[in-house]
Amino acid sequence: MGKILHLAAWSGHNEVVSYLCKNKADVRAAAMDDMGAIHFAAQKGHLEVVRTLLSSGVSVKSSSRKGLTPLHYAVQGSHVELAKYLVRKRSSLAAKTKAGKTPLDLTNNEEIRSCLVELEKSSTEEKKEETDPKPSMDDKSPGDDQIIIEGNDEKDPKPSAEDKPLQPLGSDSEAVTMQDENQDNQTGNVKRKGDEAGMKENLPGPKKAKVALNHLVGADDDALEEDNL
């Protein structure tokens, strides 16, 4: 079944390759020069076949007896899209063959060279961000929270009367202090009552209505005159 897989990969028959992978074909089986199915597919530039083989467990770093990786074969055959895909899948441009050749050494196309270098750089940065993510708010240490609190204007709020603890009445000085406060309160109450009484006395009473007595004086005079008669 290994030879069938190699032929299907070399020919670009992705459906056959997918069927063989699902039916327990040895995706790592080696042919001449230890070339696997992925090397045959990369040599011919069959992107979909390479994608299927990688999803089936084949390593993107697998190499032949001469040390060529799938990326070596893709660059050597000027299969740009496949080379880009392999770089995104973490295939290294620094991998060397037994003769000391990197994938970039196998191409004279400067456009492909610069494109692959930029892709590897961006892939390296993405990998670094995945392994070293930025700390979130939940990951902050207690020291960071303390710095934020110190920057707040309300870092030292004055204790209110409700927050003050009640002191025990065990000492003589505290008892004397409370007695003095009670006397002051009683004195203040007496003064307030005296002031209220004085204010009531000084308030002017309601004015009495004046009654005319002229009719009474006239009646008395008539009675005296009758007596004299």
Describe the structure.
The chain is mostly helical. The protein has helices spanning 2-11, 14-22, 37-44, 47-55, 70-76, 80-88, 110-131, 142-150, 172-202, 214-228. The longest helix is centred in the C-terminal third of the chain and has 31 residues, at 172-202. The protein is globular. Residues 147-155 have low confidence and may be disordered. Residues 118-229 are annotated as: Disordered. Residues 118-143, 152-165 have a biased composition (Basic and acidic residues). One of its GO terms (molecular function) is ubiquitin-protein transferase activity.
The overall average pLDDT, rounded, is 74
Given as residue ranges, the uncertain stretches (5+ residues, pLDDT < 50) are: 147-155
| Amino- and carboxy-terminal Cα gap | 171 Å
* Helical stretch tally: 10
SSE-based structural type: mainly alpha
- Following the backbone from N to C, one meets helices and strands in this order, namely HHHHHHHHHH
Question: Would you report the number of β strands?
Answer: 0
Overall outline: globular
Query: What is the share of helical residues?
Result: 55-70%
- Largest pleated sheet: none
